[in-house]
Amino acid sequence: MSKGMRVNSNVWALVIQHVIAKKGLDSARHVWKLVQETNFQPNAFVGSHVIRMFNLLGSVDEANEVFSQLTRPNIYTWNAIISANAKHGQGDLAIKLYHQMVEVHGEPDDFVFVSVLKGCVGAGALDEAKVVHHHVTRTEYEPEAMVTSALLDTYAKCGTLEDVKREFELSSKQDPIAWSAAIAAYAQRGRPQEAFKLYQQMIQANVKPNNITFMGVLKACAKVGALQQGKTIHGHIIKCKLDKDVLIESNLIDMYAQCNSLVDAIEVYEKSAKKEVVVWNSMISAYAHFGRLHDAVEVYENMVKKSMEVNGPSYIALQKACISQYALDQGREFHKTSDYWDYFDKPEVGAAIIEMYAKCGGSLDEAHAVFKKLPKGDSLPWCALIAAHTHQGDGIGALKLFKQMQQDGICPDANIFGAALNAASLMTDLSEGKLIHEQVKDKGLESEPIVSRALIDMYTKFKSFGEAKQIFDTVQNNEAVEALMAGFARYGCSKEALNFYEELKVADIELSNSVYASLLKACQGGSSLESGIAIHDHIKGRGLVTDPFVCSALINMYSEFGELEQACMVFDSVKPNLFTGNAMLHALVKHDQHEAAFHLFHEMQQEGLDVNEATLLPLLKACTKTGCLNHGKHLHALIIERDLEANQVLARALIGMYSKLEGIEEARNHFKKMPVQDPATWKFWLDIVAHKKGFSSALECLQDVKEKEKPHVAIFDPLLAACSEEALVDEGYALLKMMKDKYDVTPTASQYAQFVALLEHMGRFNEAAKLIEGLSLPNNVDSWASFLVSYRQHASLGNPHAFNDDDILSDVYINERSRAEATKLHVLHRALEAWKNPGVAVIEEQTEVILAHRAELTAKIEKMKMYFKDGRRLIKRSPNSDKAKEEALCGHCEKLAIAFGLLNTPPGTTLRVSKNLRVCADCHNATKIISKIEKRDIIIRDAYRIHHFKAGECSCNDFY
């Protein structure tokens, strides 16, 4: 191309499109150089394309340089440069350019409004956003829906809630813009109750709500699942004649879906007159929320038939629908389609595709392949990739990406921090998480809902409830409430959950459905039926007894407490729906009411209710338990009919059913036909094969892993377990070597620990000790404690000075008749004040947990002494004499609890005892004899395992 030769603008546009598709920044620079040489002064049309090219390739500085050389930019050029700066975190410059454009060019168009509002979000410029809003209101034409949506998003994200509150208090109370901004901000920032209150005050002040007002308050309803409030707002919308606004319709569909009312969502969709693309997209998302992939695809196909413009959000919604049903193949098809229509390079679409591959059983390699094709300057793809690694259990890889992103100059936003904190939750300690927390504080993002939720979730997973509560006290948003209550529920902290609940009531904080569900679950963990009933009464007072989600939680609670009749009463009190139906199915199957479960399922089908994973899973379990193969095959056909074959949870249930009812070969056929085989399913399958056919057969199945596909480390667990069960030491060594050499998989600490246990069981203590020392396994104290237990079982004293678990070490000395050494150990304990924690045991007595007291039990203990004298090899542990030993062992806390149970429960009742320390050998053997003489099942949960004593035997086979 000769210098000075003029080239048609359309030719340049085609060349630039090609460069963008190839992702070549060097090529882009060469093209810009040619444009300058051949066109002398590039026109606005070509300049706009060049700016867009540099924007998409991540070089905003070069985009600004191009703009500076244009003498007569048009509206498209202004929008291109404002959009580029807003996208790449230069919000202040985007706002400055916007004001220059208004001064030079005049009235902006809708695309410019959207671009500058994104810049306002990036800069946290609430005042500037309001200026833009005023510009929007004075335009001569009605702004497009995308402008309204951008305004809503800006008000929700700009500045802090304190900023919003201050600005609102200073504004005119007759200004609907100020009301709408505050309502939207409170709704998006996890304060839906404040949004509701503001809306009520707005109505009382006779200020007419607009579409932004209604969208904000609808989002608040969706946040807490407030269906009745949502319906009331819907009535107000109709009264204000805004029900035909397409964005309002879209938000109504979203709200009804989030409030678990698909029927209402469909009604809004079907009544929509215009049915613009945003309404179609919302309906796809609604079906995705309910796991109805088939219906979501049908809406998409109807869009195509009606020549609707399928856009980026359409493909995002479709990928969400695929995720809901683990439909990897369908997700791949939509990936290809979005790529074909040139939506793939949009960061938000690419991020959704990455999420799909991570959650539908695809490989991280596929997710990385998508990531490499996306613009690197946007944080969304980074966030999606970090979350993908976290979802597949690779916290280390996720945190490496987080650090790499910052090294590449990308500043983490709230979403990125949320993803990184979730990854930190997978670590062995809080060190990484606390470093990220410090960054969050420095950025002032602790109060962002997604961040506060992730922080509280992380701290509660490490049982650091004090720090989690401090974060809640600081931010007090709805997400923080939900996360903290979920944390209490996760670990059965019923007392803490109930105290927190009382605190929320005093503060008059409205609770979401998920908070009530977590609270009821926490009651189960603490065996507190009375508290659950009290919460049920409170729910009635709040008018939530008809809410499907809350009623499902109530059914689950009553079922866990064995109150099936109460669960049925809750179920019967509400209109038939999928959520309570599924909960009732689980309850019936849990209590072996299989016939009733099948009958209920038949009724649900007659009611026209859909089925999903939660419906089918308990029914498959019922088929497996009862041997109802024909019922199981009918359910399998239904799974195929509803496009649920890719659902890995259901697939595992089917394989388990066929393996038990038809045999391993039939189960193998079904396994091979599965469209997707994720690591959990492989592990499940290998576990079945190992259990039924042994290690060799399971090892053969490992060859079925697809060639060139790196197997997940977890699928080796069943193979190592089979080695342990069959006492295959050499095969275990070979397997560990194969993992590293053939599959490039590093065995986990728990896998090494399992193999160490095998070595100990086989009496190969030197090898076990070398392995523990050489690997620096985490929880080394536990590893050595386990080692010493085995050492004692094999009655081999060896060199006990090398070991640290003094309690077990003392036992070893006693068993070897080295009482002098045992005495020295006790003297040393006293000198160093290094006593172990005092033993505490509790026993269940009907609905109470009882801590037994020695004084009440003297008579029973005296009787128990006779058992011990009659038993073989029972009295083994005491530093002084047989008499002292006899007295000491009878005072051990678990025996006190057992004595209490024998005195206070009817003959034949199972005794359940919990102890905070490891059960000692004397107590273990004594309990075996008690179980035989008293004809009782006795279950003791100690710090290391559960022991089930029955007829003189223990479930641990004396390996404790």
Automatic annotation (TrEMBL):
GO terms for biological process: RNA modification. This is DYW domain-containing protein. The keyword Repeat applies. The lineage of its organism: Eukaryota, Viridiplantae, Streptophyta, Embryophyta, Tracheophyta. Residues 881-960 form the DYW domain. Gene3D superfamilies: Tetratricopeptide repeat domain. Keywords: Repeat. One of its GO terms (molecular function) is zinc ion binding.
